[in-house]
Amino acid sequence: xxxxxxxxxxxxxxxxxxxxxxxxxxxxxxxxxxxxxxxxxxxxxxxxxxxxxxxxxxxxxxxxxxxxxxxxxxxxxxxxxxxxxxxxxxxxxxxxxxxxxxxxxxxxxxxxxxxxxxxxxxxxxxxxxxxxxxxxxxxxxxxxxxxxxxxxxxxxxxxxxxxxxxxxxxx
Length: 171
Description:
Blueprint: H1 3-14, H2 23-44, H3 51-65, H4 74-81, H5 85-97, E1 101-106, E2 109-117, H6 119-140, H7 145-168
């Protein structure tokens, strides 16, 4: 029995009418979030990127590689990445200063901006993506192929549930 199971067992004794069955998974997700943040920072540090920086580069690279022409507006990035507009502005300025993205006026909306990935930004994204792939393979190496597939499917279902919960406004 690990500490999470011990915690739930003690709470169940304390509050026998409350169903704590979902709590261990939520605690484990929180712990995974903390550990993944450390993992992500370790992978990104040599590239002098933050997780927010890389998230923007990844969205722009995906857009670029999918063959979709043109640039993205910051509102789309903000919505996709769940960052505050102020936080997105800070990230954009940093990435633009590093010549990883270009920001230009939106010709269809004089007040709006468009964001594109520079060749330098795409090349950096590709190096970071390879580093993440290698580090992820080392991290999950103790799990068999079927276990990794099962983990991926369980995480997908969990993310779908969390997205649906958020979309429903149920807090």
